[in-house]
Amino acid sequence: MSMGIGINTQKPDAGEIRDRQEDIACGVWFTSSGNPIPQLVKYKEREEVHSIRNIRVLTREKKYYCGIPVMEYLCSAVEEEMEYLFKLYYYLEECKWKIAWLKEL
User: Fold this and answer.
1) Residue 55 resides in a domain
2) Does the pLDDT value for residue 105 go beyond 50?
3) Per-residue pLDDT at 3 exceeds 80
C-alpha cells in the first residue's frame, strides 16, 4: 500500500521552449545570494551589434525544460523611443544566455 512517500519528488518540467531563441551576451549583476540580474544585453542583427540597457525585469522563475534547469526572465526595455518585451533565458549548467523577442510595443 502506497502512503504517498516519495511520490512526485521530481521537479516539474515545463516541456520544450517554444520561443525562437537567439544567442546573446548579457552583462549581469549578482546579488549577495548569487541570483543573476540582467543589466545589459548585446545581440547581433544583420552583422551589426546592438545593445539594450535599462532592462526592467517583470518576472523571474526557475524552470526545467526537458530536464534542463533554466532561469526565465520576462523583461521590458525602452531603447530609441521603442519599448521591447522579451524573455531572457539563463541556462544554469552552461552559463549561457539567450533571448526570445515577444514584441515591439
Assistant:
1) yes
2) no
3) no
Edge-to-edge, what's the strand order for the sheet holding 82-91? 22-23, 96-104, 82-91, 68-79, 56-65
Is 15 inside any structural domain?
Answer: no
Name the domain count of the chain.
Answer: 1
77 inside domain: yes
Q: Residue 91 is part of which domain span? A: 22-104
- The grid cell for 57 is 525585469
Cα distances from 17 to residues 56, 67, 93, 96, in angstroms, run: 22, 12, 16, 15
Residue range 45-103, pLDDT digits in tens: 899 999 999 999 999 999 998 889 999 999 999 888 888 899 999 999 999 999 999 97
